[in-house]
Amino acid sequence: MRVDIISIFPEYFAPLDVSLMGKARDRGILDIRLHQLRDWARDIHKTVDDTPYGGGPGMVMKPEIWGEAIDAVVAQGRPEGDVSVPPRMIVPTPSGRPFTQEVALEYAREPWLLFTPARYEGIDSRVMAEYGSRLRVDEVSIGDYVLAGGEAAVLVIVEAVGRLLPGVLGNACSVSDDSFAPGAMANLLEGPVYTKPPVWRGREVPEILLSGHHGKIARWRRDEAFRRTLEKRPELLARLDSGTLDAHDRRVL
Ligand code: ADE
């Protein structure tokens, strides 16, 4: 997957060199390209923002600079040289649609993502309108809080999407067992996990996990997922698809 990120802080993305994402890049699974937005600024001060029309606090990012930057990156085309498939443009903003595991899976199927993280009060809205008529543009929020800029949101999204790409995780099963994974884990939180030693500070690992009985262990894990979801995110249980519940699930609930 190719990922382009246009930002006034390209250095913010250094963590993408580390751990799983770093390895995915080394192995050529993730092709991440960082671009400095100010490279497209026209004045000596490399200004990228201006005061908002209508007044109010803060500054708004200028449309011409974003427009030229996005045009230039899109014109570079895909690495294979196929310019017929434009990128999916993702604009992080607290007023966007919620980013969920389902959206992460949707993005993981795309060959090319273009992120345009904003600072200040955001990007002039005409930029999203302009590209919305040419590319697929998603305004996406990673949660109901306001960050200092969209860069941290891009890190979150790239990591959530990157780990879903084939060959990134050692064990593909860990993706289907994830909290929120579609299928059996849809709208469920993953339950507790344990490793050796069997007793630590007097606390024992649940006996069932040492039994070697895979059927019973799977059942126990599912029950724990229900318990944890009920305790921490009861509103998720209302969204459970009743078609995925068996008789035992119904008793636990
Ligand atoms: N930029 C600022 N806050 C954000 C949020 N919650 N999600 C995505 N982008 C943001």
Explain how this protein is built.
- Specifically methylates guanosine-37 in various tRNAs.
- S-adenosyl-L-methionine binds at residues 142-147.
- Its EC number is 2.1.1.228.
- InterPro entries: Alpha/beta_knot_MTases (IPR029028), tRNA_m1G_MeTrfase_C_sf (IPR023148), tRNA_m1G_MeTrfase_TrmD (IPR002649), tRNA_m1G_MTases_N (IPR029026), tRNA_MeTrfase_TRMD/TRM10 (IPR016009).
- The structure is a single chain.
- This protein is α/β, with parallel strands linked by helices and 253 residues long.
- The chain folds into two domains: 2-162, Alpha/beta knot (3-Layer(aba) Sandwich), CATH 3.40.1280; 173-252, Trp Operon Repressor, Chain A, CATH 1.10.1270.
- Helices cover 33% and strands 16% of the residues.
- It has nine helices and nine strands.
- The protein has helices spanning 19-26, 63-75, 101-108, 125-132, 151-162, 173-177, 214-232, 234-237, 247-252, and strands at 2-7, 31-36, 49-50, 60-61, 88-98, 112-115, 136-141, 199-200, 203-204.
- The strands form three sheets. It has a five-stranded parallel beta sheet with strand order 2-1-6-5-7. The protein has a two-stranded antiparallel sheet with strand order 3-4. A two-stranded antiparallel sheet has the order 8-9.
- Strand 1 (2-7), helix 1 and strand 2 form a beta-alpha-beta unit.
- Helix 3 (101-108) packs across helix 5 (151-162).
- The protein is elongated, with a radius of gyration of 22 Å.
